[in-house]
């Protein structure tokens, strides 16, 4: 029983994460070199920052990667903390693009996409090779999903596992914490969401428990950013904790309304996987749109919460240096 669960879980998760890495590498080589320049130049307003965050997350296929990149730019003094709040809101929405694509159930195209991607990668031209990485990455992601489905059958038959999730269905907080911990361990909220989709489609989880796990995954994805901010300047720490506190606040606010969120997603589609994807999109879209008009207030609150202990003269000098770079 344990082997029949662990083997497909390990291989499926490996395929999925490696596919994400391959796709991210392909996109990075196509547009990643300009990403820092775009993030430095086109984040003058909260709305511009929001779109840059959304686009960057789609390109890099990881909200954690974009947040870590933002921390690096802030630590280098290229952008200021106030410019990063909009980016953070955009990353939360951008990460739902992958989930929506995954929910389309394109697993039957996994092997053809993988073979096409490898064929393109063997081509001499650099751009075609990068496109090949992206295509092969998508193929590996769908292959990983197909492999993860294999573990659902023995899980469905396991009384221990059923009783565990039956217990967690009585408390959505357990689902939330499960999502946080698992995502923090594997550093991928998308992977956690995909596994949750598989369990839900086999009726191992209730919809509310599944949604609680997805909300937890949104919080768990901040763990990488918090680690990346260790040893950096105050502005970088403010970026990491702004991302974390925003996702925690959103999860706590939405937690009592999971039944309503489930009803809305069920109205939109009959597919359990699509319901999860739509719910995550609705959650992130509502949170981002509600917060976007209050970006200056959010920035001031975070700066009050994590104050910069440097002297005012040092701050003035740093700001002059940053502004002179872009003149």
Automatic annotation (TrEMBL):
Record has Acetylation as a keyword: no
Entry's Gene Ontology molecular function annotations: sodium:phosphate symporter activity
Give yes or no: UniProt keyword Oxidoreductase: no
Offer a single GO CC term for the protein: plasma membrane
Q: Which GO terms describe its biological process?
A: sodium-dependent phosphate transport
Give the membrane topology, semicolon-separated if more than one: Multi-pass membrane protein
Membrane-spanning segments:
6-27, 48-81, 101-123, 130-152, 172-199, 211-232, 244-269, 281-306
InterPro entries membership: Na/Pi_transpt, NaPi_cotrn-rel/YqeW-like
Keyword annotations:
Cell membrane, Membrane, Transmembrane, Transmembrane helix
Q: Where in the cell is it found?
A: Cell membrane
Please state the protein's primary subcellular location.
membrane
- Name-wise, this protein is Conserved hypothetical membrane protein
């Amino acid at each position: 029983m344990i082997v029949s669960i662990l083997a497909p879980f390990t291989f499926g998760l490996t395929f999925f994460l490696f596919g994400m890495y391959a796709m991210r590498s392909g996109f990075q080589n196509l547009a990643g070199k300009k990403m820092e320049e775009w993030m430095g130049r086109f984040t003058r307003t909260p709305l511009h920052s929001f779109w840059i965050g959304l686009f960057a997350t789609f390109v890099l296929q990881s909200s954690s990667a974009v947040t870590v990149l933002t921390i690096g730019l802030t630590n280098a003094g290229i952008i200021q903390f106030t410019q990063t709040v909009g980016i953070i809101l955009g990353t939360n929405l951008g990460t739902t693009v992958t989930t929506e694509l995954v929910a389309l159930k394109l697993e039957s195209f996994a092997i053809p996409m993988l073979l096409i991607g490898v064929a393109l990668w063997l081509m001499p031209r650099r751009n075609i090779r990068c496109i090949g990485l992206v295509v092969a990455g998508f193929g590996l992601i769908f292959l990983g999903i197909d492999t993860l489905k294999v573990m659902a059958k023995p899980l469905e038959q396991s009384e221990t596992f059923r009783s565990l999730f039956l217990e967690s269905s009585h408390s959505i907080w357990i689902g939330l914490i499960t999502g946080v911990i698992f995502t923090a361990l594997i550093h991928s909220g998308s992977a956690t969401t995909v596994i949750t989709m598989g369990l839900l489609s086999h009726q191992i989880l209730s919809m509310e428990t599944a949604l609680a796990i997805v909300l937890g995954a949104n919080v768990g994805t901040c763990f990488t950013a918090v680690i990346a901010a260790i040893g950096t300047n105050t502005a970088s720490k403010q970026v990491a904790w702004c991302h974390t506190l925003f996702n925690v606040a959103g999860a706590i606010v939405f937690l009592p309304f999971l039944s309503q969120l489930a009803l809305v997603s069920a109205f939109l589609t009959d597919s359990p996987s699509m319901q999860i994807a739509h719910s995550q999109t609705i959650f992130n879209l509502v949170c981002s749109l509600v917060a976007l008009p209050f970006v200056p207030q959010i920035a001031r609150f975070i700066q009050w919460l994590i104050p910069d202990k440097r002297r005012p003269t040092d701050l003035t000098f740093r700001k002059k240096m940053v502004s002179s770079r872009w003149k």
